[in-house]
Amino acid sequence: MVISTSAYAQELAFARQIVAEAGRIAMGYFDTGIKVDTKADGSPVTRADKEVEQFIRARLEERFPEDGILGEEEGEARKKERTWIVDPIDGTYNFARGIPIWSTLLALEVGQDIVLGIVSAPAMNEVFYAERGHGAFKGDKQIHVSQVDKLASAMFNFGGPNRIVDKGLWPALTECVKLTERQRGFGDYLGFSLVFEGRSEAMLETGVQPWDLAPMKIIVQEAGGEYFDLSGGESIYTGSCLVANRLLMPEFKRIFYKPKI
Prior knowledge:
Oligomer: single chain
Strand order of the largest sheet: 4-3-5-6-7-8-9-10
CATH class of the largest domain: Alpha Beta
Distance between the termini: 48 Å
CATH architecture of the largest domain: 2-Layer Sandwich
Low-confidence stretches: none
Strand content: 25-35%
Radius of gyration: 18 Å
CATH superfamily of the largest domain: Fructose-1,6-Bisphosphatase, subunit A, domain 1
């Protein structure tokens, strides 16, 4: 573990610890044929989702009783200046079907800034994290976005095509496919992490929630890239985002951002 004397070093160390413990809980259910239920909003949930979030909430409430918590399964509690944002299992469909591309996501928002974030993918033996102003890491190795500066040489990742269609971005996606060298539908954490590490140049995600995006924002920024929401800002609360290296973000914005006139 990287030792830091930074403003949120204690919070980051604690968060990494509880996310690792949460991963062990989730792995106890992984690839066991666990039952999937459907929530009122149509999204999937399993016993593992609920148990992991309850564990993380309990540990956070014990260690930081004055902080707020926003989680996928139990909603918002005590929204305050400091709020932890939790997705116990991002990629529940994958998790339930024995596909290892899923992760536990945790971030801390202070005011309107995400100051730390963690993406832990125990089935893939990967963990990514960042703290504001102190770089992004995969395990103990610092990571950076790529320096590819031409769309014709770029690899582009995207989430669920059905959500891209619902957002009215299918023509833009078609244009992007024509302009980029490679395109892959790596959803969930994987599409983002490939950008963090410089293995891909951009990731588009739509139809998602703040807990899906909070750690992704700070990790890509600390890796030297950019985060952009498709409403024209950098919010995690608008339901969509682009992450990309700085050299190509203007090109991806041109393709996908359609400002209202």
